[in-house]
Amino acid sequence: MSVVSDNGDTRVVSGNAGTDSGMSKQGTSADGKMRIETDSLGKRQVPVDAYYGIQTLRGQENFQITGLSVHPALIRGLIMVKKATALAHSKLGQIPSRIGQAIAEAADDALAGKLDSSFMLDPIQGGAGTSINMNVNEVLANRAIEILGGVKGDYSLVSPLNHVNMGQSTNDAVPTGARIALLTQLEGTIEGLDALACALEAKSEEFKDVVKMGRTHLQDAVPITAGQEFGAWAKALRRDIARIEAASEGLHIINLGGTAVGTGLNVDIRFIHLVCEELSKISGYPLQTAEDLVDCTQNVDVFANLSSCMKVCAVNLCKIANDMRLLASGPIAGLHELLLPPVQPGSSIMPAKVNPVIPEVVNQVAFQIIGNDLSVTMAAQAGQLELNVFMPVLLFNLLQSADILGNAARTFADKCVVGIEVNRERCLNMVETNVGVVTALVPYLTYQVACDVAKEAQATGKTVRSIVLERGLLSEEQLDHVLSFSHLTSPSGMDGA
User: Fold this and answer.
1) What is the pLDDT of residue 20?
2) Residues 55 and 33 in one domain
3) Mean pLDDT throughout 433-455?
4) Which of 42, 346, 474, 491 is the 20 to 30 Å CA partner of 448?
5) Is 347 a catalytic residue?
6) For the segment 272-330, what is each residue's pLDDT rounded down to a tens digit?
7) Given CA atoms 185, 187, 188, 194 in this order, what sign does their dihedral have?
């Protein structure tokens, strides 16, 4: 049996995969047969039953970098691009309807996970993502060939380049697929952040009457409520969510139809508008063709902006996690104001020790996202002239950030924040015995007198309240007002003092 390609030289041969470099990793067909495929560099053997082709094989051989595979969401986004383009070309009569429908059906199979094992390229690769693009082209072409009753590799029926990639370049197909991938993954990111913000807001309400000492420079300052602390953390996260949502709006603008450099070479203007409509329906996102396809092709600031917003969120999460670790420190020699839920034993040598492992993992996720942002920044600024060739590493880091940010936020909420308790007795004791409350007396005693009171309290161990009463500086009624928790933790008038 022979298989003839559209270039006339694909055929089936018997052979051992070990005779061709890289074959052993890819595997062979059940009967050991291989097919010969040809590209501009020459001929290669491909397992006869493989959905991938020669360019996928070269990509796998050339780029063995991370030991990982391209993010599934990016593959799915690119598959949607291929389905939309096939349908658009078919409706415009630019490819036969049967071929367009076969490619669309193949795309549906891939989206259903039936072809997952065929997408195995390393996410960090050269060529702006050409290997990713060709991998999808070849897999969909070979599945479409099967649907039409042909044999894999018979590219005279459906060609990866002439049909699946028709009217496209890697330079518009991959960035468009990436936008869909990010929009998809960011849904989970936002859900995770919202869950954490809701959990913090609930604790803010629960602890609104718990007065504790505030601290600046890690030194005693003035009282604050635990509810106010949790509320401030929640507010920061709400701003982060708003920033990420605003940044994601730019992902709805696509450059599909711009082809190689954004000029739209080799495409019908009707295709540019129609394919955007088709892709919007397939993806479920309201996409728009960029007003300036050249700009949208060569500039990647939309991705850098999104990365920056996630980095800022990581910074806020890191601060929250650090605060909780400090406030939960102890239980004897630390602050011991917060009681974090115990989720696992903390030491292999120290009995009964329990560590704040959830805030610690959040810290580490934050470090990773901050590092990812630097990689995205470097990739974005390194673009030259009409194309940024560093999309693979940019997308690798950006998609990872979206994933781990949402996962960390959800973990933080579920395994830590919802179960947090406040050590009310300790908080109250530290307020009542703390010299910091003397600050509230400054408007009534002057700074100098209040300073004297504070020094005496520190030297003698007496409370500020008792010293003020002993000196007759204020009446008990006046002190009740000035040192009341509501007065200490919120703006108020000075009448009645």
Assistant:
1) 34
2) yes
3) 92
4) 491
5) yes
6) 999 999 999 999 999 999 999 999 999 999 999 999 999 999 999 999 999 999 999 99
7) positive
**Is residue 31 scored above 70 in pLDDT?**
no
Q: Looking at residue 8, what is its pLDDT?
A: 42
List CB contacts of 428: < 8 A, sequence separation 6 or more: 211, 212
Structural domains in the chain (count): 3
pLDDT(12) > 70 = no
Asked whether residue 126 falls in the same domain as residue 147, the answer is yes
Q: Please indicate whether residue 373 or residue 492 has the higher confidence score (pLDDT).
A: 373
Query: Does pLDDT of 495 surpass 70?
Result: no
Last residue of a domain, one of 424, 444, 460: 424
* Residue 288 in domain: no
Residues 345, 5: Cα–Cα separation, whole Å: 62
How far is the C-alpha of 373 from the C-alpha of 11, rounded, in Å?
Answer: 47
Q: Are 115 and 108 in contact (CB under 8 A)?
A: no
Domain co-membership, 54 together with 125: yes
Q: Evaluate if pTM is beyond 0.85.
A: yes
CATH of the domain at 460: 1.10.40.30
Q: Is residue 224 part of a domain?
A: yes
CATH assignment at residue 397:
1.20.200.10
Residue with the two structure tokens 């003698």: 460
Sheet architecture: strand order including 42-47: 11-14, 33-39, 42-47
* Final residue before a domain boundary, out of 166, 201, 224: 166
Kindly state whether residue 68 falls inside one of the protein's structural domains: yes
Nearest to 396 by CA among 124, 48, 2: 124
Pairing of strands 288-289, 253-254: parallel
Set 2, 21, 117, 347: catalytic member:
347
Residue 66 domain boundaries: 11-166
Q: Cβ contacts of residue 363 below 8 Å, gap of 6+?
A: 318, 321, 322
Q: What is the DSSP letter of 46?
A: E
